[in-house]
Amino acid sequence: MQKSHVLKRILITLLTLTIVTGFVHFQASALKPRPPKHTKITEANNAFGFSLYKRLLQNPKNRSKNLFFSPHSIHTALAMSLEGARGKTGKEMNQILGFAGNKQARQNFRYFLWALAARGKTSTSKFHTANRLWGQKGKAFLKSYLQNLKSNYSSSVHRLDFKTKASTATKRINAWVAKKTNNRIKKLISGVLPSDTRMVLTNAVYFKDSWEIKFKKKNTRPRKFYLNRKKHIKVPTMRVKENFKYSSNSEAQILEMPYSSSYSMVVLLPKQGKLSQLEANLTNKKLKHWLSRSYKTKLTVYLPKFKTKSGMLLKSVLSQMGMPTAFGNKADFSGIDGTKGTNGLRISEIIHKSFVKVDEEGAEAAAATAIYKRAGRAVSPTFRANRPFVYLIRDTYTGAIVFMGRMVNPKG
Questions:
Q1: What angle do CA 393, 156, 350 make, to 5 degrees?
Q2: Cα 269 from Cα 163, distance rounded (Å)
Q3: I need a labelling partner for 152 at 20 to 30 A (CA). Which of 19, 36, 214, 335 fits?
């Protein structure tokens, strides 16, 4: 390959961690967010999450597995890249990220991030989200782009030498990710970054919180979990009887369990054998409708303890979703460094890793994403999650889904 045709690369890393307690690195300052300012960001974030969820399940290998990821982490990292995308590249990314026809919505990201951080921080909870741009030493970036990241994403620039010290640079980024996720994601980037990497964008999210209504350990015991109609396993299952928000319909039972902060876990429990049908029809609009019809009632809740780790490469998936240009020779990220064409930046891969743990104390989750560029009310007294289900961790103030997943086998 001729040197003039070697494309510089950008790596965007997205990290997500959820834990029943959390802390925040985003500076709240004196901003006072108003719901209208981050409503469009929330809608875009959630719609993207459901679209990605469905696309991931089109891979036959994922259909029989547990799944967990952070729409918020991936969406935020991609939005930081979108700020420098131009032409067809920008048009495609705007479309799948939910900003098509309303590009000004991205300018409210700072209010959105502020709201998530401020509402998720209490004496017993921690929510932390951090963004950072890692740039090649000596590499020039447009001042307007750097200022945009600083103002709207609270992202600073840290210089590394990918050309001659790629191993050291990779270790430095992985160490930052580990620190921001309380060591739940220790090695976001496996191997060593290519020497022609010019920029890495990272987003890390960590959340840890305790249940508002706690499960007592003495009530946890091995109970049946049905993998399908014919096969079951015994798993440690928690039990509590208390008032929770609940609703049901022909597709699922919907349970919302609050944490000590403004966050909550929503569990969507379909009938046995109907998980795929529920997943295929899930949308943000439908979720909002179901939650709006929920009401508080006394329930006996059975929920398995579980822990899940997940890792995925998203280049192929996002290309299929509608943004292939960003990964090819015609990518245009000239809004980042002023260059395009064969010497311009393109995304070579998007790496996302996540972790979640749910037990009697609460929940813990983490995720990280990296993108690198080269150059009617029916009352039920029992909610028994003894079969595969979908679950979400969301901020009840903004409505944003921070984490989402499916649990088909608590033993992994």
A1: 55
A2: 50
A3: 19
